[in-house]
Amino acid sequence: MSQQASPAGPLLQTLVSLLLLTGLPGAVSLKNVRMRVVPAAVEAGRPATVLCEYDLENSGLYSVKFYRGTHEFYRYSAADEPHTKVFPFPQGLPSSPVNLQRSNQTQVYLGEVSPSLAGNLSCEVTTDDNFVTRMVYTNLIVAVKPEGPPSLSATKAAYDPGEVLYATCRAKPSQPAADLSFYINDKEVGHGIPEVLNTSQGLLQARLDLHLRLTEEHFAGSRDHDSLPLRCHAEVPHLFIHNQYLRLPRRTKQPIPARVTQPNGGVRLPASGGVLLLALLGVLPGLTATMR
Ligand SMILES: *[C@@H]1O[C@H](CO)[C@@H](O)[C@H](O)[C@H]1NC(C)=O
Ligand SMILES: *[C@@H]1O[C@H](CO)[C@@H](O)[C@H](O)[C@H]1NC(C)=O
Ligand SMILES: *[C@@H]1O[C@H](CO)[C@@H](O)[C@H](O)[C@H]1NC(C)=O
Is this entry keyworded Transmembrane (predicted)? Predict the structure, then answer.
């Protein structure tokens, strides 16, 4: 029996060792391929590092290729000398910002990032045994700061409690779009989601409207309660924070002015006015009597 089975033995052994050498079909010898850009939103003209990280397990590295869209712009290949290579960008894109001295098999250093580079970046890792290949991608966000604070306007020049305030805040174009919010007396009001428009320069312009029924409380932060301090806050985290202010006067002046709360003004104006009138009425007949 054992002699009959023997011809199959060496063949099976060869098959098994062949599989062990080359790796089982579909066996993963490359894990956790991941990509990110540091910083997450790069300011135009500033440097950035594009990282492509991976776990080779027991394999060796064959190559790492970096793409912008479908164009390969950088390659690390273990077999070639030198290992690193830069490919110029096609027309319409800037000259390659890759700094070879600071790039290797896990990262590409870009010396100066231009807005036109924004978009899909991918990296493709290949191992040297049976050429297991993995590709991942990330989005390169090229940040552009707005030229200044947002603009803030209201439909009317003055408001009273009980009226509805219609205000609009428009950010200057930026990338990414600014997040906008309204504040009165440092308390957020409105809680809306900004509408975002594309500009011809490829930037984003955020706009937020406020519809708010006003109460006495909204005027409480101003001296004499005579105005409404409205603020629009524009922000992209880690890039900029801008505020724009608009002080809207109260339309109808209050009948009770600040004298009520003045330290020495113990006498209320309407009351004192009344007392004065009574005094005059009482004194006048006396005066006329003594004049006779
Ligand atoms: C990014 O580019 C890669 C390579 O061209 C492609 O496979 C992938 O689908 C793209 N991803 C997106 C979200 O466009
Ligand atoms: C690639 O370069 C970076 C920065 O110089 C370094 O921190 C990293 O260890 C390098 N990676 C390898 C695999 O040598
Ligand atoms: C702005 O442009 C981008 C890319 O061109 C597009 O994906 C997006 O939908 C546009 N957004 C608006 C609000 O038009």
Answer: yes
The answer to whether 173 touches 199, Cβ cutoff 8 Å, is yes
84 CB under 6 A from ligand 2? Answer: no
Nearest CA owner, ligand 1 atom 9: 137
Nearest protein CA to atom 2 of ligand 3, as residue:
198
Q: What are the beta bridge partners of residue 244?
A: 232
Q: Which phi and psi (to 5°) does residue 217 adopt?
A: -60, -35
Give the β-pairing of 240-249 and 227-236.
antiparallel
Q: pTM for the whole thing?
A: 0.58
Q: Indicate whether residue 99 lines ligand 2 (CB < 6 A).
A: no
Q: Give tens-digit pLDDT for 238-291.
A: 889 999 999 999 998 766 555 545 455 444 444 443 333 433 444 444 444 444
